[in-house]
Amino acid sequence: MLAFIFRRILQSIVVMLGVALVSFSLFTYVGDPITNLVGIQSSDEQRAQLRESLGLDDPVLVQFARFVGRAARLEFGISYQQKRKVVDIIAERLPATLELSMLSALLALTLGVPMGIYTALHRDSWFSHLLLSLSLIGVSLPTFLIGITLIYIFAVQLNMLPSFGRGEVVHLGFWSTGLLTASGLKATIMPAITLALFQMTLIMRLVRAEMLEVLRTDYIKFARARGLTNRSIRFGHALKNTLVPVITITGLQLGSIMAFAIITETVFQWPGLGLMFIQAINEVDIPVMSAYLLLIACFFVIINLIVDLLYFAVDPRLRVGREAAAGRSPT
Amino acid sequence: MTAVTRENGVGGAFRRGWDSDLAYSFRRSKVTMLAGAITFLFISAALFAPWVAPHNPYDMANVSLLDAFTPPAWEDGGDARFLLGTDDLGRDVLSTIIYGSRISLGVGFASVLIAATLGISLGLISGYVGGKTDAIIMRIAEVQLSFPDILIALLIDGTLRSFIGPGTHGNIAFVVVISAISLAYWVQYARTVRGATMVEKNKEYIQAARVIGRSSIYIMLRHLLPNVMGPVLVIATISLALAIVTEATLSFLGVGVPPTQPSLGTLIRVGNDFLFSGEWWITIFPGAALAIMGLSVNLLGDWLRDALNPKLR
Question: Cβ–Cβ contacts within 10 Å for residue B239, how many?
């Protein structure tokens, strides 16, 4: 077990170094950093001096080590476009993305789980069939189409909700929130639904499949034979056991919500990290891009690590299975 | 398409997949037949776009700004020449959709082909050679699996774009998009093929081939490959839908195919600007086309998976 955790952490470090290498090579090989810093009038001597003072003449490995060191201290440099520190831009935009992501995750869970339970318990009702067919559409429709459709219906046709931006935000120290003002709340509704829809259908299908599986097991039959009420069987015994994979997968999905936020934020011009990244790609704003790459990779690695460790903590069966799988030599 | 392959008798693996059971389950499911018909329609419209489309939207001689923003034919002010209306430059929306599907499907097929080739090769090597090679390839696959596909595609796309420079136009943009999508989707193939290869390679016919001195490459291509094609076909169909949607998403975000050769995603992105001024048809119709195309290919893939029933997951 300890060996497994150790190996996982080592693997995470390797991944982070790999992503760091990509971001580093973006910095080093895309354009000339000096040209990006100085004006046109500067002489060759000044450039050479700057080059030396920034350590750009050092061996690549030394530069890479320095890059990693700086990244660890959150020094990502200055945005080419906005001429501000990248850390400040990220700090300013992070609350918007996190707020949207958390809200969507919450929405997906609170709607997805009951829908999954319902479709598992009432397998043949028309409503279950409707939910399942809708979920198929939800899975195959691209996120941005859902967003555009919502905008068309609720912003253009019905004129009920704003179609872009975050509305008014309240600043609480370093955090800015749109959830405390009416216009902020209104602006959050459509992006949150757009982002939640895909995860919701996923969670619904997962809960349904797990629930159906558990309901077939022997201990449920025994519970029934003991004369327990339907309610206690379903929610006390069956649901409890389905929640383990649901929790872990939802944890993993938190990462993909952050990823899909890029699309949702672009559709709704939501001032978060995703929109920042897309703008950075279009403007070839390397410091912002590489910072985002590292940030999102770090986020994913941490989530995956936590989920993997949770597996051990939560489910003793998996502990055995995993160790067996990990121990099998790949021949 | 498949029927033709069978009559010609080319591709033994393909023919084996296309046995009567499969044809039967296809005939039995109405939804699948509909999905198949729609997919066929899209593919043939895309292939024969210059002959099918009522106008050539990218021939400037045929396009008149005077026709701009014509609503669909059945609306007030519609024009019978433009069934689904025209966009801001006076181009026929139906024609741009047909030409757009051509780009979307083309990029989709190309990405699937490259992803499959890459994934199958790595899977075969990984499964057959084993040892360190296998460990390295599978670790990379595992790491990639822990990130969502669309994010991988977006990150690769963004990185490649910056390396090439801001002027990522023309055919280079296609190369970028196709590589980004194929690099995002090779893992599925590799894992499946590796699993199947590890099962197959201990069977007697492989041992026999080895004993008579066949080279590893020959064994992989001639003996192993045909036996792992079933699951690969299923993954290919499902990932075609994913590739189309991913391409549309990248193009919608403005980091996809060049604007001079718009795909469905680009059309939606451009049309999106006119949604508020009431010209809904410029974006809604390409959107619907994309949704229907994605859904149909998806349904076909689901059916294929159930019909062939390879133990995918």
Answer: 27
User: Which residues make Cβ contacts (< 8 Å) with residue B63, sequence separation at least 6?
Assistant: B55, B57, B89, B90, B91
| CA gap B290, B286 in Å, rounded | 6
Q: A78: which DSSP letter? A: B
Q: Distance, in angstroms, between A118 CA and closest chain B CA?
A: 24
In angstroms, the CA A153 to CA A160 distance is 9
HSE, CB side, 13 Å, CA atoms: give it for residue A60: 6
**Per-residue confidence of chain B (313 residues) as pLDDT tens digits?**
444 444 444 556 555 555 556 676 776 778 888 888 998 988 988 888 788 777 777 776 777 776 767 777 777 777 777 777 777 777 888 888 888 898 899 999 999 999 999 999 999 999 888 888 888 888 888 888 877 888 888 888 888 887 776 555 667 888 888 999 999 899 989 988 998 888 888 888 888 888 888 888 888 888 888 888 878 888 888 889 889 989 999 888 888 888 778 888 888 888 888 877 777 888 888 888 998 998 898 888 888 877 776 444 3
Are A245 and A206 spatial neighbours (Cβ–Cβ below 8 Å)? yes
**Total length of chain A:** 331
Contacts of B295 in chain A (CB under 8 A): 136-137, 140-141
Residues of chain B in Cβ contact (below 8 Å) with chain A? 130-131, 134-135, 138-139, 143, 146-148, 150-151, 154-155, 157-159, 161-163, 165-166, 241, 245, 248-249, 252-255, 268, 272, 275-276, 278, 280, 283-284, 287, 290-291, 294-295, 298
Smallest Cα–Cα separation from B309: which of B39, B19, B2, B104? B19
- Nearest-5° Cα angle at A254, A251 to A257: 155
Q: Residue B191, SS3?
A: helix
User: Which residues are registered as beta bridge partners of A85?
Assistant: A78
What beta strand segments (E) does chain A contain? 170-172, 175-177
Task: Tell me the three state secondary structure of residue B54.
Answer: coil
Among residues B179, B312, B127, B123, the alpha carbon closest in space to that of B235 is found at: B312
Helices A316-327 and A286-314 meet at what angle, rounded to 10?
A: 110
- CB distance B291–A145 less than 8 Å? yes
Q: CB neighbours (10 Å) of residue A61?
A: 8
